[in-house]
Each structure stands twice: as structure tokens, then as C-alpha cells.
Amino acid sequence: MGQPHSIAISAAPQAVFARYEAVETWPRWDPEVLEVYLPEGLLAGARGWLKPRKGPKSTIIVTEVDHGRSFTVESPLPFGTLRFHHRLEATDTGCTTTHWISFTGPLAFLFAMTAGRSIEAGLPQTLAGLKAECEGTEPPAPSSAQT
Q: Nearest Cα to 86, choosing from 26, 146, 24, 147?
């Protein structure tokens, strides 16, 4: 449903996954996240909340974890669900990291056309921040198109 966004990171998948597991640091490298609370950590079934830069604080539930490879977090919506998908694939120089979103439910098309566009527009900057965090470099400045 959502357009996947990928970036090459010069770090092993396990090292990148460790950044995902350090949930409290997400706001440091993801400019779209102001606060996140996931007291059980990145485990299937864990519940908490996330406050995005734009929009209300939302309930999040970790629905799938394949340690070192992928995880999915979902957020309930009226008559639907928003899912954030994260996948890591090993390469000769580190890994390729891919993020994408999907919506389900009777209003999925509406959410995809409204909130989905804004969320997808932020994925490249999120991936750039994750890359900088993992490689110990400075993240690029946000583009004016994403403000």
C-alpha cells in the first residue's frame, strides 16, 4: 500500500536493530517523533504511545518482531489501523533499511490520502537520521518541503 523508502547504512543489521531497540532514543534520530513510551521495549505485544511532531499522541502496539531483521508497530485509527513497517537486509557493506506504512479498514483510502502523504513525506528524513545515528555522522538538515 505505502511506498517503501530505503537507505544503505554502513552498519550490520544487528547494530541498526539495536538502535530500534533503544526506543527512548527514537526522538534523537527521527525528526518526526517528539516522544515515545514503550515500557516493555521492542517486543511483540508491547504497548505504549508515541507523540509525533505533527498530530496527537497515539497508542502504539508492537505486532511483529523478527530480531535483527524486521518489526511492525501499529496504531489504531477510527475504523482502521495504521502500520509502520521496518525491514533490514544485510549487504556486503552493512545493510539496506526500508520503512513503509500501510492502512487497513474501511477508511484506509481516506487515511492514506490525508495522513499517509504527510507520514510518507517524512520517511526519507527519518531514514537519514537513523543512518547518521548508526554511522556516527551528522544528519542532513531537513528539506523545506518537509516542514
A: 26
* Alpha helices by DSSP H, 22-92: 26-29
What is the pLDDT tens value at each position of the chain, 147 positions in all?
Answer: 578 999 999 999 999 999 999 999 999 999 999 999 999 999 999 999 999 998 899 999 999 999 999 999 999 999 999 999 999 999 999 999 999 999 999 988 888 888 888 899 999 999 999 999 999 887 666 654 444
For the chain, the structural domain boundaries read 5-134
- Distance in angstroms (rounded) separating the CA atoms of residues 111 and 124: 20
Q: Rounded to whole angstroms, how far apart are CA atoms 147 and 86? A: 23
Identity of the residue numbered 94: G
CB atoms under 10 Å from CB of 136, counted, come to 8
Q: What is the pTM of this model?
A: 0.89
Q: Is 109 helix (H, G, I), strand (E, B) or coil?
A: helix
Residue range 5-134 in CATH 3.20.20.70: no
Tell me how crowded residue 11 is: count the other CB atoms within 10 A of its CB.
22
